[in-house]
Amino acid sequence: MPTATLPVNYQEVFRSLPENFLLIAPNPEATILDNTDSHVAVSLKRREDAVGKPFFEAYPASDESGAAQIRESHEHVRRYLEPHTMPLIRYDLARPAEQGGGLEEFYWQATHYPIINERGELQYILQRTQNVTEQLRAARAANEAQQKLADEQERTRFILENLPVLIWTATPDGLRDYFNPRWLAFTGRPLEEELGEQWLTSLHPDDRDRVRTQWLQAVADGTPYQVEYRLRRHDGQYRWILSRAQPRRDADGHINLWVGGATDIHDQKMMVQEILESNEQQAILSEQAYRNYQRAENQRAMYQGLFTNAPALICILRGPSHRYEFVNTAYQALFQDRQLVGLTVAEALPEVAAQGFIDLLDNVYNTGETFTGNEMPIKIASPDGPSYPGYFNFSYQRFSEQGETAGIMVFAYDVTELVNARKALE
User: Fold this and answer.
1) What does the alpha-carbon distance between residue 209 and residue 223 come to, in Å, rounded to a whole number?
2) pLDDT band, residue 172 (cuts 50/70/90)
3) Does 88 share its domain with 174?
């Protein structure tokens, strides 16, 4: 018994295809013959407003360059009877009034296929259009993210190479594997001569064993590392530096990197030594004759000049109420136009008092035990806004006059940039 054949509505089948197809006549005007329902949806134009019209009347080009590309693709199919894929083009579509109207940006990838009859003649041009707007936006976002990452890496590299700090890193077992250009310029040695434990050869012989022992102990314990030692500069002079390092840990708590930085503290260290020696000398000179007293006064003026212009932050607090008797230029600059001399710490810097530093001063004044703080966070009130955090290395040291407790000398320097740089690396 013969099987019944159902008639096929090919136009209905064509319009139901799940892609964006446009059927075009091969004439120069490229008359629109039909399109799929999917094409109607993405083109935001009704079928009856496009079918039967020339291509560019139905779908006006956004610019002459895009129109020229479409014409060239049509002509390629007519001439060579082979598919032709156009370059990516931008073609904006008008939103319906119910969607707010206006133009919406779209990007398309279009391919034109020849439909050839049994005589080998071009009968139709079939345009397949793919909306690649989201893919293009995703690619752009990925490129922007990649560029941002590259910029951030370049920024980090620039900071590492140009910070006025000697930066180094080490493997989890403590072997140095990187030194920034500042370190190499300081020592005058190439990188390959500093790696591993070779950096120790640049230390002063009297410091070498002590520093190596402290470093290995920090590596074994996984604790922060801090040490002072003399490092040979490229001109052969040994300079005192302060070196610190922090371990970086992975999600499981294992150390996968050590990051360290060192600063030249030679001048500060020598200055403190000179200050202490000068105080003793002044005490002796005060008991001598007028001529020696006059000489001591001259020396005191010289040392006061050193105090005033020293790069460190120096002040003298008199009496148990810790009243400012002297502040040098660097110390005063930290608090800008605020009045310090003549006031107590609590009166001049209430935000510092609120952070517990008065108790530290009281303890040093009453016990004579010097207090040393490393990378101590201090919030300083800004004259035109909220307080901002800074980090300081400082010492409180009691001094006496004629055998009686007189006050406290404060010596400090600002390590905020170093701490922030280390935090950025971490």
Assistant:
1) 19
2) very high
3) no
